[in-house]
Amino acid sequence: MEAARDDGAAAARGPAALSAELPDARLVAQCRSGDEEAWRALVERFSRYVYAISVQAFRLPEHDAEDVFQEVFARVYERLETLREDEAVRPWIGQLTRRLCIDRLRAGSRETVEDADELPETAADDVLSQIEEAFDVHDAMAGLPENCREILDRFFARDESYRTIGDALGLPAGTIASRISRCLDKLRDVLAVRD
Amino acid sequence: MSAYDIERLSRLIGMLPPAPAAWIGAAQELPQARRELDGIVARAEADAEFRRALIADLEGALRAEGVEPTWPLLDELRRRVNG
User: Fewer Cβ within 10 Å of end Cβ, chain A: N or C?
Assistant: First the structure.
């Protein structure tokens, strides 16, 4: 009952809040029941993951990465019913993304070279494992106060300058560096508890 | 997970930049887009002229219904109107 109230409160704050606050399995269950806000949250939660696999691990050009991105979510939407364990949604999406990236590379190599077998078809494993770790870190960021989440994301993931962050958040640019440092310390504490 | 130093933590946060907003928006609108698709297919089945125009310009038909014509949707529409 408490969980249901929490879900409702998160839903009222939009897909980003829902994505940050609901565990994977509950999000999947809500999507399966036809909750479109949950679907938006699921896309929000895994969008960076799918994007990073295709662009960083497989180095797909932007237009191919976009096709893979849309195809991944179209298949997830169609096949969510077939997922055996709701909590396994992340490895499922990861595997689907990797497979579609490989298909895309194979299709591209057939068009450009005679011997497609000579081309590398798999992404660097170390990059894939770093993406998994990065997902865990972003997941842990959900345990931070919103101002910390926002400042760390803007600085490290969106590559925004102190001035841009200060303007956006109404903070003096001179205080951003110390806020980032404090937020990183908090994040380390969150990760230590999770370990 | 092992202990994180600040440098490693910073690098890992930076490894997941946001996907382009338009990509996310199109994927989030999938349930709505599927409903629009069903409506377009039903209309094509009932109206031969609309069906001809649709086959000639699938992308335009989706745009006219306010649906971003991503390739999985175009592919599905093509399959359903030709099937």
Answer: N
Distance, CA of A106 to chain centre = 25
Q: Do residues B14 and A192 make contact, with C-beta atoms less than 8 angstroms apart?
A: no
Residues A79 and A15 in one domain: yes
**Residue A22: which domain range?**
2-142
**Residue B64 and residue B2: Cα distance in Å, rounded?**
52
- Best interface-test mutation with B: which of A47, A64, A78 has the largest number of B CBs within 10 A? A47
pLDDT tier for residue A187 given thresholds of 50, 70 and 90: very high
* A52 contacts: CB under 8 Å, gap ≥ 6: A131, A134, B15, B16, B17
Q: Are residues A114 and A29 in the same domain?
A: yes
Q: What is the mean pLDDT of residues A122-126?
A: 74
Residues written for chain B: 83
Is residue A60 within 8 Å of residue A101, measured between CB atoms? yes
**pLDDT, greater one: A108 or A169:** A169
What's the rounded Cα separation, in Å, for the pair A9 and A6? 5
All residues at 6 or more sequence positions from A12 whose CB lies less than 8 Å from its CB, including other chains: none
Cβ within 8 Å of B, A 105-144 = 130-131, 133-138, 141
pTM of the complete model: 0.85
Cβ <8 Å between B19 and A36: no
